[in-house]
Amino acid sequence: MTWGRPRLVVAAIAFAQAVVDACGAATAPSPLATAPEPATSPPVRTRPAGTVLQLGGTPEGVAVGRDGWAAVNVRGPDGLVLFNLGSPSTRRFVALPGSARHLELAAPGGPLLVADESDDRLVEVALPSGAVVRSVPVGRQPHDAAAAGGGRVFVGDELADTVHVIEPDGTTHVVAGPLQPGGVAAAADGSVVVVVGVRGRRITAYRPDGVPIGTANCGAGPTHVVFGGGDFWVADTNGGAVLGFRIGPKGPRQVARIPVGARPYGIAYDARRDTLWVTLTATDELAGLHLRGTTVTSRVTYPTVRQPNSAAVDETSGAVVVTGSLPDGAVEVVG
């Protein structure tokens, strides 16, 4: 696969560190009237880096599992497109009963966690077979999900302001979530789960059993979150930055703010290379931040397909998969 020409800035980029009372005693920000959204991306002016695959179906959620198996959510018809990065021209469609935007992995080999927004269910799909493992009713318009310790799965119910915790046997219980829960992520060992309240501009941390640890203010308009390098990284879409949070006994504490550009939205972390990848929807770009702790040691930027709403990393090869979320959309493999 061919890399496009990057813009490379080699420098230690300073970050602004903020300490927020993780128990929520700090003044909470005023809720946003509407949830933060990606920019409506301009037409592509620079040839995208890497390999471009035309998928159609408004591709958005993407995950890359063991052995290079990739899955992409598409709509109209609703389902998943599965392919291997080693032979991306060979693709298979798996029909699902409802539409989804975001896609996560319960473990490197799967199953896939599909938040079915239209049917209010969490669907688990085996990878690479595409077989539906189970389908569990959750709250109104589930947006994102993450696997926690003890075999549990956390699901953010975006329009119910709740979080469903699914037990290994399929039973569920509900806990309070931040206002309009969007992004959900878990620590690598499953010991902590965080949920981003996109309208409330708060981040809440939970134990694997659903008991809240604490909460903190979270940017100008946050959307998605990923775990990497011991911290949780949030795309502050309204604020044009990535925010780093560390979870302590009392909850989240902000430890970094890294400006990245206009309307960051999709976010992924390459743990092998300590690289945080962020899509910039206002400029059709993918930014890679090479980190040492919370300090950026270098930054690389690649041109993408139009409307780059999501990204995922194949940690074996380092390739990044970016979705172009338009009705005639494409997927780009960079690396």
Topology, please?
Blueprint: E1 7-13, E2 51-54, E3 62-64, E4 69-74, E5 79-84, E6 87-95, E7 100-105, E8 112-116, E9 121-125, E10 132-137, E11 142-147, E12 153-157, E13 162-166, E14 172-176, E15 181-186, E16 193-197, E17 202-206, E18 212-217, E19 222-228, E20 231-236, E21 241-248, E22 251-259, E23 264-270, E24 275-280, E25 285-292, E26 295-303, E27 308-313, E28 320-324, E29 330-334
Antiparallel strand pairs: 1-26, 2-29, 3-4, 4-5, 5-6, 7-8, 8-9, 9-10, 11-12, 12-13, 13-14, 15-16, 16-17, 17-18, 19-20, 20-21, 21-22, 23-24, 24-25, 25-26, 27-28, 28-29
3D structure, described in words:
The protein has strands at residues 7-13, 51-54, 62-64, 69-74, 79-84, 87-95, 100-105, 112-116, 121-125, 132-137, 142-147, 153-157, 162-166, 172-176, 181-186, 193-197, 202-206, 212-217, 222-228, 231-236, 241-248, 251-259, 264-270, 275-280, 285-292, 295-303, 308-313, 320-324, 330-334. The chain is mainly beta. It contains no helices and 29 strands. The N and C termini lie close together (6 Å). The strands form seven sheets. A five-stranded antiparallel beta sheet has the order 1-26-25-24-23, with no helix packed on it. Strands 2-29-28-27 form a four-stranded antiparallel beta sheet, with no helix packed on it. Strands 3-4-5-6 form a four-stranded antiparallel beta sheet, with no helix packed on it. The protein is globular and about 45 Å long.
